[in-house]
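User: Look at the shape:
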Amino acid sequence: MVSTPRFLPAGERAVLAEFADLAGVMAQRAALAAEPIPGVTETVTGARTLLLRFDATTDAAAVARALRELPPVAPPDSEADVIEVPVVYDGEDLEAVGAMTGLGADGVVREHTARLWRSAFCGFAPGFSYLTSDGASLEIPRRPTPRVAVPAGAVALAGEFSAVYPRTSPGGWQLIGRTEMAMWDLERDPAALLPPGTPVRFVAVEA
């Protein structure tokens, strides 16, 4: 059951809705996608929040009331718009992840490719999408010591999430593979390949 969000003002043209958990955020965002609120011009998703920006003809109270009255729905499970990400599973931490989960390296690959993942929110770096899926078998902690540089395209796990690093950057996630697909491209609209709500399936390929 999704709890009622808490609403906070965010300047003159935005309101922030705080939820108890990520499931509440995703359910409410799916409801907004199915039934947009008049006057809302942008929705920004966070791990526990939805920021709704609105135009000058709308006010925060009206937006909060409309969102409160909008029944949350489950994200659609259709695979019509799934983005397939080809992955070479040769990450530096793959063997360690296999040991931590008890699945072995091959089992990690099977689990990772069998699931339908969904972009929950973006953060950390442009194009970095936090992907979630059903099941806890791949939930693992971050590395105790982050790497100074994780290469662009690295496919990783941490906590309940999977992600692809869009550019070379420091990072503490467990690396299980790599892809050549660009997560962030300013020549593309939208620039992020996996904006919130996008369904994703990883596909194992040879190097």
Q: What stands out?
A: The chain has two domains: 6-69, 83-204. The domain at 6-69 is CATH 3.30.1360.40 (Gyrase A; domain 2). The first strand starts at residue 6 and ends at 9.
